[in-house]
Amino acid sequence: MTLAAKLEDFELTLEHLLMDVFMTEGRRCQVHLLDDRKLELLVQPKLLAKELLDLVASHFNLKEKEYFGIAFTDETGHLNWLQLDRRVLEHDFPKKSGPVVLYFCVRFYIESISYLKDNATIELFFLNAKSCIYKELIDVDSEVVFELASYILQEAKGDFSSNEVVRSDLKKLPALPTQALKEHPSLAYCEDRVIEHYKKLNGQTRGQAIVNYMSIVESLPTYGVHYYAVKDKQGIPWWLGLSYKGIFQYDYHDKVKPRKIFQWRQLENLYFREKKFSVEVHDPRRASVTRRTFGHSGIAVHTWYACPALIKSIWAMAISQHQFYLDRKQSKSKIHAARSLSEIAIDLTETGTLKTSKLANMGSKGKIISGSSGSLLSSGRQRPAGGMPP
């Protein structure tokens, strides 16, 4: 064996030994943040998901943490959200080598950013919306994509300067999803459409661009909906959509117009067992019949099927979304009056320079931020989020 081969073998052995040590003390995780940075840390066995969320939120000075969550992509391709009252390492992560990949993003959406108190929260909702559009998680007509791309340019670069600069910027910014490009003859055509919109925005401030972008996105039917692929008893595929509004059932080829709508206020119970997820909803039409015949209140049961891991994930998401609905309903009287969008635009413009300088100090985009494992040790627990038992 050559000296180089011996050295390589020694390095591999050392790496495996170090990995064994790490695994006894915790597990390496990589949290992808909404501004493209990555937070690399060693998660201790006792660390709660709530404490990990607190740590991530601290990197944005985020006060309104209740809208956000941390998720991983499970083996079915769906986002599986960490339960805040559970330890991070108790979740069923995919069996893969290397660090566990986690994503920090918006979990609970609301009607409008005007109900958000803090500018940092609005900035993150904006980053989250951009990411969802770019990753094609939201259905958007290509012409709307071009308009949205113009607002991304206005927010990031200011007023239009030249066609050449815009074309260069569009190649660097997450503005044009692949599907929109496929629907048109060429990239140049798509860029020209964006430029047409962009020129009309001359004079808009950064804050106005963000507010206008979010106003368009919030009007899209698929914004704020978490979709899950399921089947009915006959094996016909459907999408279940969970949001702050309720549980919607969609045709598999149409995520826009729901076939069935179950609002949270109608919900009586929800539960899962193995491959089955069921909801019990109050049905007034059914009630009028059952009262006359059997004397029971009108409850209709709707059931969908998927693999056990996905069913459990859907149930956990439904529980948390229902609790979010109840919390908001209970605190409606305490909710501050919505800010005007013009006021928000002014605030975002004024804080934009400060935010940019702060992020520059923390590290450029794509940079890995090391987390201190010592600060992650904790035995504290949080009261579990409310909801209906299985």
TrEMBL record:
<dbReference type="InterPro" id="IPR000299">
    <property type="entry name" value="FERM_domain"/>
</dbReference>
<keyword id="KW-0965">Cell junction</keyword>
<dbReference type="InterPro" id="IPR019749">
    <property type="entry name" value="Band_41_domain"/>
</dbReference>
<keyword id="KW-0963">Cytoplasm</keyword>
<dbReference type="InterPro" id="IPR019747">
    <property type="entry name" value="FERM_CS"/>
</dbReference>
<keyword id="KW-0175">Coiled coil</keyword>
<dbReference type="InterPro" id="IPR018980">
    <property type="entry name" value="FERM_PH-like_C"/>
</dbReference>
<dbReference type="InterPro" id="IPR041785">
    <property type="entry name" value="FRMD4A/B_FERM_C"/>
</dbReference>
<keyword id="KW-0206">Cytoskeleton</keyword>
<keyword id="KW-0597">Phosphoprotein</keyword>
<protein>
    <recommendedName>
        <fullName>FERM domain-containing protein</fullName>
    </recommendedName>
</protein>
<dbReference type="InterPro" id="IPR047176">
    <property type="entry name" value="FRMD4A/B"/>
</dbReference>
<dbReference type="GO" id="GO:0090162">
    <property type="term" value="P:establishment of epithelial cell polarity"/>
</dbReference>
<dbReference type="GO" id="GO:0005923">
    <property type="term" value="C:bicellular tight junction"/>
</dbReference>
<dbReference type="Pfam" id="PF09379">
    <property type="entry name" value="FERM_N"/>
</dbReference>
<dbReference type="Pfam" id="PF00373">
    <property type="entry name" value="FERM_M"/>
</dbReference>
<dbReference type="GO" id="GO:0005912">
    <property type="term" value="C:adherens junction"/>
</dbReference>
<dbReference type="InterPro" id="IPR029071">
    <property type="entry name" value="Ubiquitin-like_domsf"/>
</dbReference>
<dbReference type="InterPro" id="IPR014352">
    <property type="entry name" value="FERM/acyl-CoA-bd_prot_sf"/>
</dbReference>
<keyword id="KW-0796">Tight junction</keyword>
<feature type="region of interest" description="Disordered">
    <location>
        <begin position="369"/>
        <end position="390"/>
    </location>
</feature>
<dbReference type="Pfam" id="PF09380">
    <property type="entry name" value="FERM_C"/>
</dbReference>
<dbReference type="InterPro" id="IPR011993">
    <property type="entry name" value="PH-like_dom_sf"/>
</dbReference>
<dbReference type="InterPro" id="IPR035963">
    <property type="entry name" value="FERM_2"/>
</dbReference>
<dbReference type="InterPro" id="IPR018979">
    <property type="entry name" value="FERM_N"/>
</dbReference>
<feature type="compositionally biased region" description="Low complexity">
    <location>
        <begin position="369"/>
        <end position="380"/>
    </location>
</feature>
<feature type="domain" description="FERM">
    <location>
        <begin position="27"/>
        <end position="329"/>
    </location>
</feature>
<dbReference type="InterPro" id="IPR019748">
    <property type="entry name" value="FERM_central"/>
</dbReference>
<dbReference type="GO" id="GO:0005856">
    <property type="term" value="C:cytoskeleton"/>
</dbReference>
